[in-house]
Write a structure and sequence with these properties.
The chain is of the alpha+beta class. The chain has 2 domains: 11-190, OB fold (Dihydrolipoamide Acetyltransferase, E2P), CATH 2.40.50; 202-450, Alpha/Beta hydrolase fold, catalytic domain (Rossmann fold, 3-Layer(aba) Sandwich), CATH 3.40.50.1820. 26% of the residues lie in helices and 25% in strands. It has helices spanning 63-70, 107-113, 125-137, 148-154, 173-190, 236-240, 243-251, 284-301, 318-330, 386-396, 441-450, and strands at residues 11-12, 17-20, 23-24, 30-32, 35-39, 42-44, 49-52, 59-62, 76-85, 88-95, 105-106, 117-119, 165-166, 202-204, 207-212, 223-229, 255-259, 306-316, 336-340, 359-364, 376-377, 381-382, 405-407, 413-417, 426-431. Strands 14-15-17-16-18-19-20-25-24-23 form a 10-stranded mixed beta sheet, with helices on both faces. Strands 2, 3, 4, 5, 9, 10 and 11 form a 7-stranded mixed beta sheet that branches. Strands 1-13 form a two-stranded antiparallel sheet. Strand 14 and strand 15 (207-212) form a beta hairpin. It starts with 10 loop residues before the first strand and ends in a 10-residue tail after the last helix.
Length: 460
């Protein structure tokens, strides 16, 4: 599981920024938006080769590069420290990490924490402390049997510190202790045998998924569930690792089911095969059926059952588009839908055979990754317009053209369409933020869901 530990990033005054989907070369440099990016403050360590046999196709390479590649999920944001050439920069780069709601994760710090990089001469004190902690624990290339370490340390070059990079102050002993204890705890859990679900994916015929049991459950009642689709390049494991998302769901007695997207041939990021997607490698509604059947079987083995009448389908970013896809093509199988920052892609469906649905859609007004009006993805694909997507669902549900009422939960502006076929409702809630799940979203979505969902079914 990805260590959800955020280190104080170097502050870069007036830095340029680069953002996009990144690839990795053999030197450990990132490539995004046509620019080669060397991570500030570290030198990627040479390491033994390894293979990711669970990926398709199987990926092999130096372990340090595989570790870094595993963390290039979703959009990478880089703050430029200096330019070495027109298309080559040194930068501090971050990713969304394991918490959808939390601060971003520094890629260089992650490499140092796990012993797959050396702190360079320009590294801030915080980076050097991370390296010291990894060395004390014998992680990565700091393993006692490693001979690569001694060769590398002798020939490492010094790098001049750029004047405009401000290093963070020394980390407190409490912070370093918390970091080390977190690593020990994660390593201890990794060594324990565990059933599939949280740390180990459950397998079905054409994919995998993760699931987490609720904190408790009323005896004699089946479990309601939240089926959550991750964003592009992420995974179901990251969804379960997000305390801001998984915590409220478990606390309120819901099973959390997080399917994994597939990596299309010729690509290296997990994606979804929804309508309009560049990836069309799997029948997603059929895959979801197999996932739910497998979940039900596993619950029965534990003396529990799945309440199929109380499943809320949700997702973030491209996972939000998957929730829209399920609403359109399998809407009659689920009680409600709560996508965030993702709608239909073009061309929009001509009709939705799943029939009228209940939906709560949340979107940021300043979202530039998935703008409300959509945007082109390469030369052949295009994210759809959120308002056009809502118009289609209103037409399917015979809702009115004007909202029946307005509400302002969590400082959002929500347009609520009532009186749709079968007492369905559609809600569009906009907030001032960008491409993110707003804090408090999980409780908001469950409050909305419980305003109409049937009571839990008794265990047979």
């Amino acid at each position: 599981m990805l260590l959800a530990l955020v280190w104080l990033l170097p502050a870069i005054a007036g830095a340029d920024t680069i953002e996009g989907l990144a690839t990795l070369d053999a030197r450990g440099d990132l490539h995004l938006d046509g620019v080669r990016v060397t991570l500030f403050g570290i030198t990627v360590a040479p390491s033994e080769r390894d293979c990711r046999t669970w990926l398709r196709p199987v990926r092999c390479g130096p372990r340090a590069l595989l570790f870094l590649e595993d963390r290039l999920e979703g959009f990478v944001h880089c703050e430029v420290a200096r330019r070495l050439a027109r298309d080559h920069v040194v930068a501090v780069c971050t990713v969304a990490g394991a918490r959808l709601f939390g601060p971003r994760i520094d890629l260089a710090a992650q490499m140092l924490i796990h012993g797959w990089a050396f702190a360079s001469a320009e590294a801030p004190p915080g980076y050097r402390r991370l390296q010291q902690a990894a060395r004390r624990r014998g992680l990565g290339v700091w393993r006692p049997e490693s001979v690569i370490l001694r060769r590398r340390r002798r020939r490492r070059r010094a790098v001049v510190v750029p004047r405009r990079v401000r290093a963070p102050g020394p980390a407190s002993s409490v912070t370093v202790l918390a970091m080390v204890l977190s690593i020990w705890a994660i390593d201890a859990r990794a060594g324990e045998a565990s059933p599939c679900g949280v740390e180990r994916a459950c397998e079905v015929a054409d994919g995998t998924y993760h699931m987490a049991m609720p904190a408790d459950g009323a005896a004699g009642q089946a479990l309601p569930a939240v089926l959550f689709f991750h964003g592009y390049g992420a995974s179901g494991g990251l969804v379960l690792g997000d305390a801001g998302l998984a915590g409220p769901i478990a606390r309120r007695g819901y099973l959390l089911i997080a399917p994994d997207g597939l990596v299309p041939p010729g690509r290296d990021r997990a994606s979804w095969s929804h309508q309009g997607s560049p990836s069309q490698v799997r029948d997603e509604p059929a895959f979801v059926t197999r996932v739910l059947d497998d979940v039900a079987t596993r619950l029965e083995a534990m003396g529990r059952s799945l309440d199929r009448g109380r499943i809320l389908v949700a997702g973030f970013s491209q996972g939000g588009s998957m929730a829209w896809h399920m609403a359109c093509f399998a809407g009659d199988r689920f009680a409600g839908f709560a996508p965030v920052s993702g709608a239909f892609w073009q061309p929009l469906p001509e009709d939705c055979p799943g029939g009228p649905v209940r939906m709560l859609h949340v979107h940021g007004l300043t979202d530039q990754v998935v703008p409300l009006e959509g945007r082109a993805i390469g030369d052949h694909w295009h994210q759809g317009d959120t308002f056009a997507s809502m118009h289609l669902l209103r037409a399917v549900g015979a809702c009115g053209d004007r909202p029946d009422r307005f509400e302002t939960p969590l400082d959002m502006r929500c347009r609520i369409f009532e009186g749709c076929t079968g007492e369905r409702t559609l809600e569009l809630c906009l907030h001032d933020g960008g491409h993110a799940v707003p804090a408090g979203w999980a409780d908001l979505a469950l409050d909305w869901f419980e305003s109409f969902s049937p009571p839990p079914a008794p265990v047979p």
